[in-house]
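Quick illustration, no need to memorize.
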Amino acid sequence: MVKDEGTATRTVVVANQTTTSAWTGSYSILIVTPGQTNYTYTDGAIISSTLNNHLSFNKFGDYSNAERLLDFKVNGSGTIDIPSQTFKCGTPAVTRTFSGSGSITSGTGGAGSILTLSVAETTNGSTVNSIYTCTKQ
């Protein structure tokens, strides 16, 4: 009996099916958290390199030292999904979990378009709920 032996190598390249989006670009972001002072900063949204059909904010919450970007998805229905994501960020860097949802408040991705996000952020077992109003520049 003859045995066939051999080795095969397969390379798999995974790409985000979203290659362009009207929602990428620069945003002015207002964070409103009950019991805290409102906070405004500028952020950018790009095509996600980690989740298919998602975008990413460069510096979500204006946290420094982030291990990764925060992914989100703008659905065709006008809703926004922020899947649960855990990573270290801030000064000092601590583990935070972000999750939430939102909607397109106005526009189609051009300047002046607004995304409104309801975000839960859990740090050291404590959860804070904030509203992020993201206005495209």
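The chain has a mean pLDDT of 92.
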